[in-house]
Amino acid sequence: MSGERCWWRHGVVYQIYPRSYQDANGDGVGDLEGIRRRLDHLAWLGIDAVWLSPFQPSPMADFGYDVADYCGVDPLFGTLADYDRLLADAHARGIRVTIDWVPNHSSDRHPWFLESRASRTSPKRDWYVWRDGRDGGPPNDWISIFGGPAWEHDPATGQWYLHSFLREQPDLNWRNPELERAMHDVLRFWLDRGTDGFRIDVIHRIAKDPELRDNPPNPAGGQGYGGQLHVHDENHPDVHALLRRIRAVLDAYPDRMAVGEVYLFDPAEVAKYLGRGDELHLAFNFSFLRCPWDAAVFRREVERFEALCPPDGWPTWVLSNHDVPRHASRYDHPTLGDARARVAAMMLLTLRGTPYLYAGEEIGMRNVAVPPDRLQDPLARTLHPALSRDGERTPMRWDASEPGCGFTTAAEPWLPLGPQPPGTDVATQRADRGSLLWLYRDLIALRREHPALHRGAFRALDAPEGVFAYERTHEGGRAVVALNFGDAPVEVKLGAGRVAGGLSTRHGRALPDTADAIALAACEGMVLLLA
Ligand code: NOJ
Question: Is 255 annotated as catalytic?
Answer without folding.
Answer: no
